[in-house]
Design goal:
Blueprint lengths: L5 H15 L13 E10 L7 E13 H14 L15 E13 L12 E7 L6 E6 L1 H7 L3 H11 L8 H5 L2 E13 H12 L14
Antiparallel strand pairs: 1-2, 1-3, 3-6, 4-5, 4-6
Helix pairs in contact: 1-2
Protein name: AMMECR1 domain-containing protein
InterPro entries: AMMECR1, AMMECR1_domain
Length: 212
């Protein structure tokens, strides 16, 4: 069982730094394997609670090195909810890597635990017969303080449903629950790690050097 770890988050920062420098990232320092995974970037300004800046991943198993390399950039630069992260934002960022495990089919839309399970929902939009789907990672509902019903309703809107949500529609949803391991690394911790393991802090084009 592979668990999310510091080296995976370091590799995501390495990948993003290499992108800004038009360079290649150093080799990954973790074991290869195939798992579903997500990369989440958050930004903290003036000591405030970090706010989402990009989150994209895959529910299909991917080789970890290629997967984290691809989704580190995709979540930072191509999350359609946000403008691309710029190099100057790096000092304010934290990266969370997630590896998804234990996929199970739920008996109904309430058959899961807030804070333990992530959700994948699939349902047919009654307004146009379109199949819709969306996912939330395990930490989302707990962070938002949602009940199970509120999480499901929010997820239906995330999937693109804009109509009225009825109890019968909730009961028609197919729910897959899963769990995850995750690791969060701030940019300052990343700089400290690189300085300790490679002898010098990372240099980034367009970002002033400093301890951050």
């Amino acid at each position: 069982m592979v668990a999310a770890n510091r080296e995976m988050a370091v590799y995501c920062f390495d990948t993003l730094v290499a992108h800004y420098n038009s360079d290649d990232a150093p080799p990954a320092a973790f074991d290869e394997g195939q798992h579903p995974l997500f990369v989440t970037w958050k930004k903290a300004v003036n000591g405030s609670e970090p706010r989402l800046r990009g989150c994209i991943g895959t529910l299909e198993a991917r080789y970890l090195v290629n997967g984290f390399r691809d989704y580190a950039l995709t979540s930072a630069l191509r999350d359609r909810r946000f403008p691309p992260i710029q190099a100057k934002e790096l000092p304010t960022l934290e990266c969370t890597v997630s590896i998804l495990t234990n996929y199970e089919t739920a008996n109904n839309y309430l058959d899961w635990e807030v804070g333990t399970h992530g959700l994948i929902i699939e349902f047919t939009d009654p307004n146009n017969n379109v199949r819709r789907s969306a996912t939330y990672l395990p930490e989302v509902a707990a962070h938002e303080g949602w009940t199970k019903e509120e999480a499901i309703d929010s997820l239906m809107h995330k999937a693109g449903y804009s109509g009225h949500i009825t109890e019968s529609l909730r009961k028609s949803i197919q729910v897959t629950r899963y769990q995850s391991t995750l690791f969060t690394l701030t940019y300052s911790d990343y700089v400290s790690y690189v300085r300790a393991t490679r002898g010098a802090a990372p240099a980034i084009n367009g970002v002033k050097p400093g301890n951050h």
